[in-house]
Amino acid sequence: MVVTSKELADFSGKGTRTMNLHTAGSRLTLAALVLLAASVVAAQTNPRADQGVAQRQAANPAANPQATALAEFQRRLQGYLDLRAKLAGKLKPLSPTANAAELAARQDMLAAALRDARMGAKPGDLIPTRVADQIRTTVADDFRHRNPDTKRAVFTEIPEGVQPVINKTVPDTATLATVPALLLNSLPRLPDNIQYRFMGRHVILMDGDTRNIVDYILNVLPPH
């Protein structure tokens, strides 16, 4: 069979057009995936998370951006402590001989008052994005250097399938894994009984006085 130069050119043209269509389709698919990923991130991002950081950085452009974010983190934590102290001051004082039931009732009342005061709170209200990223990186680096036995020991303590919720009170009977001491020393400091805890693969900030979840970072721990 003899193929003429015209037939060869026609075939080549069709192949080029097909390739261009596939390439265009791939580009459209990639663009759609990028847009989808961007929309998911945007939906999960709290615009308030970095407002204070941006204002601080604008006021002092020469400052280290990470130091600025950490300073804003401490300011927000102090704001939470001030709110807690203000609400606690409105509760009926405990008697010097208060029993365990009275102490628990007061804790519940304070937790409820904080939930009402922070009704619109969202993830990132206390933890700026840069600080959340620092915590992720620090935890990931710590786990990379752990041997399999110590990794298993940490994961054994962590409750599975639990999703953190802002303002939710963690029951006294719930198991929450503590952050290992060496790792804790590498994380940004927390004041006055605000605690880092593991919940599933997530890191939560828990108010130790009320056991309320005050903020959290999703998917910090590696899958296991």
Q: What does this protein look like?
A:
This protein has 224 residues and is α+β, with helices and mostly antiparallel strands. It has a domain at 64-217. It contains seven helices and four strands. It has helices at residues 5-44, 51-59, 65-89, 100-117, 129-144, 148-157, 181-186, and strands at 177-178, 194-199, 202-207, 213-217. Strands 1-2-3-4 form a four-stranded antiparallel β-sheet. Strand 2 (194-199) and strand 3 (202-207) form a beta hairpin. Helix 2 (51-59) crosses helix 3 and helix 3 (65-89) crosses helix 4. The longest helix has 40 residues, at 5-44. The N and C termini lie far apart (62 Å). Mean pLDDT is 81; it is low at 5-9 and 16-43.
What can be said about this structure in brief?
With 224 residues, the chain is an alpha+beta fold.
Unreliable spans = 5-9, 16-43
The tally of beta strands, per DSSP, is 4
Largest sheet: 4 strands, antiparallel
Distance between the termini: 62 Å
Principal-axis shape:
globular
Structure classification: alpha+beta
- How many helices? The count is 7
Q: What strand line-up does the widest sheet have?
A: 1-2-3-4
Oligomeric composition of the shown chains = single chain
How much of the sequence lies in strands comes to 5-15%
Query: What is the helix fraction of residues, given as a range?
Result: 55-70%
Mean pLDDT: 81
Radius of gyration from the CA trace?
A: 26 Å
Order of helices and strands: HHHHHHEHEEE
